[in-house]
Design a protein that fits this description.
The complex is a heterodimer of chains A (373) and B (462). Helices cover 29% and strands 26% of the residues of chain A. Chain A is globular and about 65 Å long. The termini of chain A are far apart. Chain A has 373 residues and is an alpha/beta fold. Chain B folds into 3 domains: 210 residues, FAD/NAD(P)-binding domain (3-Layer(bba) Sandwich), CATH 3.50.50.60; 139 residues, FAD/NAD(P)-binding domain (3-Layer(bba) Sandwich), CATH 3.50.50.60; 78 residues, Arc Repressor Mutant, subunit A (Orthogonal Bundle), CATH 1.10.10. In chain B, the strands form 7 sheets. Chain B has a 5-stranded parallel β-sheet, with helices on one face. In chain B, helix 1 runs parallel beside helix 9, helix 5 crosses helix 7 and helix 9 packs antiparallel against helix 10. The radius of gyration of chain B is 22 Å and the shape is globular. Classes of the chains: A alpha/beta (373), B alpha/beta (462). At the A-B interface, helix 7, helix 9 and strand 21 of A face strand 4, helix 13 and strand 23 of B. Bound molecules: flavin-adenine dinucleotide (2 copies). One flavin-adenine dinucleotide (FAD) binds next to helix 1, strand 4, strand 8, helix 4 and helix 5 of chain B. Chain A: This is Sarcosine oxidase subunit beta.
Chain lengths: 373, 462
């Protein structure tokens, strides 16, 4: 038996769940198919950075759009998913890095992103716990962090209430189009059909695109993460560095979450296995100590990673298919799509239902590698 | 061939002995300052006392094991005080920490003999100062020569309950009550099977008889109500007896424990599949009788591979070492392997009876009041986990353990669920109305226990 609807979504990460909610709110009969539980891949295990600062300028309009949704989160899903506007402080450890921070100020201004330099004189006065290696910083007051474990499932819950069908433990293995409708087959044989298909399958979005004849150069990306035991709260902003080889934040509970470098993964044969690498963990802890020397002696209680899809130019694929009318892609967020997820769901809904969106999507078109070739 | 053995308890010692006898020089790691494992843990040199006094009936076995341990140290790459915090089965590498220094040990085959830890059920008041696990109470006595209090009550079930109570009473503590949550009827039903255990069973009866003869208050089939305390510690223990009557003793310390659970985090990180053992009521790594697993080059022995006790651990260590040698193409003594297999099979049958005589009191965990502290690392209460089983939960209903952890932080603290995990699973399963093995188990990640952040070496800082 085939279940038919208006819109099928493959992938229940932050982006897919947001799309299900926005589609349902506009009266669409929407079914989201998720292989595991919603938010069980990148969207549920990431660092939790909700950051606009430092993004590729092409992404900033989406990030701005998403920021507005993050600010309305309690209204949208009934809880704040621990989103907190702590500010994001990006640090420079030498002159060259400082110059890079200064250069980004113009980009930020163009896109209406608030950003303020914290110079050599004030950085250690304002943040006395920073180590001597730090020479300057730039502070984004609107940025912050949230709890990734809550976002997708909270969106999914309200999407259900709005009428969306969220099917977990449903892995799509068959992708076809009969000339009129998309026909998807799940591993257990269940079939689904709809005139519109949204590919929001994260790293595996590459396989979905390939099934419709538009393979893209996507690779798995596994940022290496660790968390410490709780210690008295002292690090208010979400911290990053130029170059991104280490980042850390402290939650009010006291735990410090530290990221940097990459772990390993195995995505062969449909697997979704990923592990942090111990030498990378140790290296990033050393870099973290250089930023915040008082971390020495604090216990690390867990390390982990996940799998995101990385594109060669480190920005996602978003927009209509180049081969198949009715197919729309949004995947390959290249390690920074948690902040974008809510906005992407809204944008995709406009793109499909209104035929256009205010956010410029040209940089993200799926044909960009073919154009180049 | 590079062989590594993790753990120098009964299983690890006998494994190493077997490997050394076959001409190998394994890397041998234990996080403790010396070998011996849990039951035969040695006191620091300055506190050493007579073996008979430390280990009682087990003194001969303890001495024998320690002798072998000491004899093996120079014949192996012996690394005490070395914590193995991660294992990478793909590249066959152990990640170790020794006095703040990180190192790796590469292997072709590894034998994990990581032992067990106490299994608890939260009781209202269990986080008060003065409440410890039964095993910790014993270790305090054994290695530090001190008790957990002067008026001590013990609450739990299983062989350690009677043994530790006996050891405390012998050491001069005022043991004010020994409370068994298992009913007399349950134990009586298992008695026939227990007879197979011969000496082990007889020792258990001896402890109980001794405690009774010394007029120590014993109550069976109890339901714990609360450990009471005032600011600075424990003041009493309340329970209901088998007939439902309220009972109480004054005490200043309580030892609690309901059997053991495997310390199987390295086996988990090694990618060895786990199964729920309904009789032990534990998730255990899958292995065959000889300790082979489905992950090539990875072997398991002792309590870390499923609770079997110290004697079984010795047999299993030797057997797993033979399996490892066999798989490496060495000629091994087939008769010895067969003898060990027979002994392990027989011991396995006794174990089933022992577990039946002191089953994990799942109903006590599932029935805990909402306001009892469940996850002590995170200070979370039972009701906070229970709430995640409801449709109306803000992040949606948590249908399994990892999701419930993700939503509520249960098991997300320093111990990563090693302490509260078993009870948390019962609470969630009961709230969802499904069997406990249907909600999975907490996923493991490195480090298997916390590791400190250290300052990077000066020259490494650019
Ligand atoms: C460790 C880590 C740290 C990160 N830190 C940050 C950060 O701090 N800030 C930030 O902005 N971003 C961060 N990111 C990136 C961010 O998490 C991702 O870009 C984002 O979550 C991607 O969302 P998604 O919905 O595209 O993919 P996912 O969350 O991966 O969702 C895709 C879903 O599709 C499902 N699926 C795939 N194939 C199928 C199929 N055939 N059938 C059914 N379902 C299928 C998957 O199971 C998955 O649940 C991090 C990523 C990782 C891994
Ligand atoms: C607290 C406690 C008290 C007990 N008391 C008794 C008793 O009185 N009588 C009785 O019959 N049984 C007792 N038992 C059970 C008994 O200890 C076990 O049955 C027996 O010790 C099992 O032997 P083993 O070699 O498997 O493990 P263990 O003796 O536990 O040895 C495991 C060894 O591995 C080491 N280890 C574990 N993980 C790592 C790691 N990641 N890195 C490095 N080293 C590691 C440990 O330090 C330990 O030395 C007790 C158990 C516990 C937990």
């Amino acid at each position: 038996m085939t279940t038919s609807c208006d819109v099928l979504i493959v992938g229940g990460g932050g982006a897919g769940c947001s799309a299900a909610l926005h589609m349902a709110q506009r009266g669409q009969r929407v079914i989201l198919l998720e292989r595991g539980l919603v938010g069980s891949q990148a969207s549920g295990v990431n660092y939790g950075g909700v950051r606009q600062q430092g993004r590729n300028p092409a992404e900033l309009p989406i990030a701005r759009r998403s920021h507005a949704l993050w600010m309305r989160m309690p209204e949208l899903v009934g809880s704040d998913v621990e989103f907190s506007v702590t500010g994001h402080l990006k640090l420079a450890r030498n002159d060259a890095e400082e110059a890079e921070l200064i250069a980004y100020l113009d980009t930020a201004r163009e896109h209406g992103l608030a950003l303020r330099m914290v110079g050599r004189n004030s950085i250690h006065r304002d943040y006395p716990w920073l180590g001597p290696k730090v020479v300057a910083g730039s502070f984004a007051p609107e940025d912050g962090s949230a709890n990734p474990r809550l976002l997708s499932s909270s969106l999914a819950r309200v999407a259900r209430l709005a009428g969306a069908e969220i099917r977990e433990h449903t892995k799509v293995t068959g992708f076809a189009h009969d000339g009129r409708l998309f026909r998807l087959t799940a591993e257990d044989g269940t079939e689904f059909s709809a005139p519109v298909l949204l590919n929001m399958a994260g790293y595996w979005g590459g396989a979905v695109a390939a099934a419709f004849g538009e393979a893209v150069p996507i690779k798995p990306l596994s940022p290496n993460m660790a968390v410490t035991e709780p210690v008295p709260f002292f690090i208010e902003p979400n911290l990053g560095v130029v170059g991104g080889n280490v980042y850390l934040r402290q939650i009010p509970r006291g735990n410090i979450i530290i990221g940097g470098g990459h772990g390993e993964s195995d995505v062969s044969g449909g697997r979704a296995w990923a592990r942090p690498l111990p030498e990378v963990t140790l290296e990033m802890l050393g870099l973290a100590v250089a930023l915040v020397p008082s971390l020495v002696g604090v216990q690390v209680i867990r390390s982990w990673t996940g799998i995101d899809g990385q594109m060669p130019d480190r920005i996602p694929v978003i927009g209509p298919s180049g081969t198949m009318p009715g197919l729309f892609h949004a995947f390959g967020f290249s390690g920074h799509g948690f902040q974008l997820g809510p906005g992407v769901g809204a944008i995709m809904t406009e793109l499909v239902l209104d035929g256009h969106t205010d956010v410029p999507l040209a940089p993200f078109r799926i044909g960009r590698w073919r154009d180049a070739a | 061939m590079r062989i590594a053995v993790v753990g120098a308890g009964p299983a690890g010692v006998r494994a190493v002995q077997t490997l050394v006898a076959a001409g190998h020089r394994p890397a041998w790691l234990d996080e403790a300052p010396d070998g011996g494992g849990r039951i035969y843990q040695r006191p620091p040199a300055a506190l050493n006392r007579d073996a008979k006094m430390l280990y009682g009936f087990e003194a001969k076995r303890a001495t024998a094991l320690h002798d072998t341990l000491d004899a093996m140290k120079p014949r192996t790459d012996w690394r005490p005080d070395t914590f193995v915090w991660h294992i990478r089965p793909g590249v066959k590498r152990l990640q170790t920490l020794h006095r703040g220094v990180q190192a790796v040990v590469d292997y072709d085959a590894v034998l994990l003999c990581t032992g067990a830890m106490d299994r608890v059920v939260p009781v209202p008041g269990w986080t008060l100062p003065g409440v410890t696990t039964m095993g910790a109470a014993q270790i305090a006595l054994k290695t530090q020569g001190c008790g957990i209090g002067s008026r001590v009550a013990f609450l739990g079930s299983g062989p350690l309950l009677w043994l530790v109570a006996y050891q405390y009473a012998r050491a001069g503590a005022d043991v004010v009550a020994v409370l068994d949550t298992t009913s007399f009827a349950t134990k009586a039903r298992a008695a026939f099977g227990l007879l197979r255990g011969g000496a082990t069973f007889a020792k258990g009866l001896y402890y109980i008889g001794w405690l009774r003869a010394h007029g120590i208050r014993i109550d069976e089939g109890v339901t714990p109500v609360a450990i009471e305390g005032a600011g600075s510690g424990v003041t009493g223990l309340d329970w209901r007896d088998a007939r439902g009557r309220a009972q109480r003793v004054d005490c200043d310390a309580v030892g609690i424990g309901w059997g053991l659970r495997p310390e199987a985090q390295l086996a988990d990180l090694a990618g060895i599949p786990f199964r729920f053992d309904a009789i032990q009521h534990n998730w255990v790594p899958e292995r065959d009788l000889a300790g082979r697993t489905s992950v090539e080059g990875h072997y398991l022995a002792g309590d870390g591979a499923g609770i079997g006790g110290a004697e079984v651990a010795e047999l299993a260590g030797a057997r797993a070492a033979l399996a490892l040698l066999q798989d490496a193409g060495a000629a091994v003594d087939a008769a010895e392997a067969a003898r060990l297999d027979r002994a392990l099979t027989a011991a396995g049958r006794f174990r089933v009876a022992l577990e039946r005589a002191s089953p994990y009191p799942a109903h006590l965990a599932a029935g805990l009041p909402d306001d009892t502290i469940l996850c002590r690392c995170e200070g979370l209460r039972v009701g906070e986990l229970r709430a995640a089983a409801a449709e109306e939960y803000p992040a949606g209903r948590a249908p399994e353990m990892n999701r419930a952890k993700a939503f509520t932080r249960t098991g997300m603290g320093r111990c990563q669920g090693r302490v509260c995990g078993a009870a948390a699973a019962e609470i969630l399963a009961a709230a969802l109305g499904v069997p406990v093995d249907a909600i999975g188990r907490l996923r493991g990640q490195p480090p298997v226990k916390p590791i400190p952040i250290v300052a990077p070496p000066a020259e490494a800082v650019p």
